[in-house]
């Protein structure tokens, strides 16, 4: 049986072109799928040199099927993780040790008023932090990028000028080059903070008042009172 008949139909045009033309220096290297008569579909990596003017080559063919399976599984996991990150209702971001924003999901971009990732990715995240909290955030980021875990509350000023109170929980994330970055999940606690401040203010008013203060239910029954 002819070898070419077992090359996957989608890969054969590429293989045929390389075998016929080769590279200018005579070297060839490519991957292709092959329908093995006993082992089913396999992935092969072929490297070598073309022999003269004939569509033949001298080289090595390696079975990389298992490697391909690992790569495909890793890619599936990465796709699932990306989907989860995009689906979460909170900001998910990665910040490098020098403060450069490496990644931010769509929810996070909305929180800072960015119309697109290009508006902030690759730029310093410190510029988005309120100046009064900037040094605290810088120290926090450096600490995380040294291998610690932690949480922090701080305020941001978005690209549209809107202020938000944020609460972030972060852990170190090891990059491919071995360096550590900050992986953080951050939520907007602006409304919670405003509510807590209002409650605290009301309590202070009650405590400082010399007048009688009562609370009644809808039936007029006194629930809480102080004279």
Q: Which regions contain 5 or more consecutive residues with pLDDT less than 50?
A: 211-215
Separate helix tally: 5
Spatial extent as radius of gyration: 31 Å
The structural class is alpha+beta
The percentage helix is 25-40%
Question: What does this 3D model show about the protein?
Answer:
- This protein is an alpha+beta fold and 227 residues long.
- The protein contains 5 helices and 10 strands; from the N terminus they run H-E-E-E-H-E-E-H-H-E-E-E-H-E-E.
- A hairpin with a 5-residue loop joins strand 6 and strand 7.
- The strands form 3 sheets. Strands 5-4-8-7-6 form a 5-stranded antiparallel sheet, sandwiched between helices.
Question: Key features?
Answer:
three-stranded antiparallel β-sheet; 10 strands; 33% strand; elongated; five-stranded antiparallel β-sheet; 227 residues; 32% helix; alpha+beta
Show the helix and strand layout.
Layout: H1 12-21, E1 27-36, E2 40-50, E3 57-63, H2 65-87, E4 91-95, E5 101-104, H3 106-111, H4 131-144, E6 150-157, E7 163-174, E8 180-188, H5 190-208, E9 213-216, E10 222-226
Antiparallel strand pairs: 1-2, 2-3, 4-5, 4-8, 6-7, 7-8, 9-10
Briefly characterize the structure:
With 227 residues, this protein is of the alpha+beta class.
């Amino acid at each position: 049986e002819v070898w070419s008949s077992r090359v996957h139909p989608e890969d054969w045009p590429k293989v045929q072109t390389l075998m016929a033309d080769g590279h200018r220096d005579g070297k060839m290297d490519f991957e292709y799928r092959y329908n093995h008569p006993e082992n089913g579909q396999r992935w092969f990596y072929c490297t070598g040199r073309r022999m003269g003017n004939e569509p033949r080559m001298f080289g090595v063919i390696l079975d990389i099927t298992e490697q391909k399976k690992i790569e495909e599984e890793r890619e599936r996991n990465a796709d699932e993780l990306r989907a989860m990150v995009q689906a979460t209702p909170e900001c998910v971001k990665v910040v490098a040790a020098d403060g450069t924003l490496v990644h931010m999901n769509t929810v996070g971009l909305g929180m800072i008023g960015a119309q697109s990732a290009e508006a902030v990715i690759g730029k310093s995240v410190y510029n988005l932090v309120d100046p009064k909290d900037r040094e605290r955030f810088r120290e926090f980021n450096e600490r995380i990028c040294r291998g610690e875990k932690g949480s922090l509350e701080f305020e941001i000023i978005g690209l549209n000028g809107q202020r938000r109170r944020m609460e972030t929980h972060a852990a170190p994330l090891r990059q491919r080059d071995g360096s550590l970055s900050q992986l953080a999940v951050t939520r907007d606690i602006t409304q919670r903070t405003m509510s807590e401040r209002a409650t605290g203010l009301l309590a202070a008013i009650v405590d400082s008042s010399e007048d009688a203060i009562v609370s009644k239910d809808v039936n007029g029954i006194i629930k809480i009172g102080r004279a």
